[in-house]
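Hi L., both proteins are below.
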Amino acid sequence: MVIDKYKKRERKKKAIRGKIMGTTARPRLTVFKSSTNIYSQLIDDEKQITICAASTLEKSDKKKKKAMCNIEGAKQIGKLLAKRAKEKNIKAVVFDRNGYKYHGRIKALADACREEGLDF
């Protein structure tokens, strides 16, 4: 049953990636979540580079003793990524949920990015 869950997500991920592509003007915001951390990055698929990234593994977040694998941690990562995108003059992105359902930590991260001014 566990293998089926991962295969299902991978199939969704490939279908999504076939439809969306990040450009220099509108990069792809992709999200990966594990049981203990959440990672997000802005990717330019034309040049094949990562423009900026944020995750719960960063040194500034390690100082906090509270676990960052929850919705509050996802909100903080979303705000941090949006601030870094603003510094690089990026205002619009394409959201890649990476095969995950749009709820919980994924939704919290996306909403936090929108609150900070990213359009998608």
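That was the first. Here is the second:
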Amino acid sequence: MKRIFGFALMCALLSVAALAASNSQTINFSGAVQVGTTTLPAGEYKVSWTGTGDSGKVTFEKKGIAPVTVSAKIVDEKNGHTGISTDTQGGKDVLKTIVFSKVSLIL
């Protein structure tokens, strides 16, 4: 019985890890971008998201930099490309949208 329980627990943990991995991607910023009140320098970031619709949260992580989490609208949709859109405000590029193949993150 312990062996079956252990196997079931291991399968459940692997399933959770697989589901969590589907809610993260990497993106490369060629220049500095403003995210919320934080300016992120150029580089590759792991972008992960939780929640759905208007109640989502997006986190940007890069080694050596404190993670940045902002509220976002998460839209599940198929896109033909990956990219970002920014808007220049006060001389800074402010991140507005990240588009991945199966989701759009609207900040």
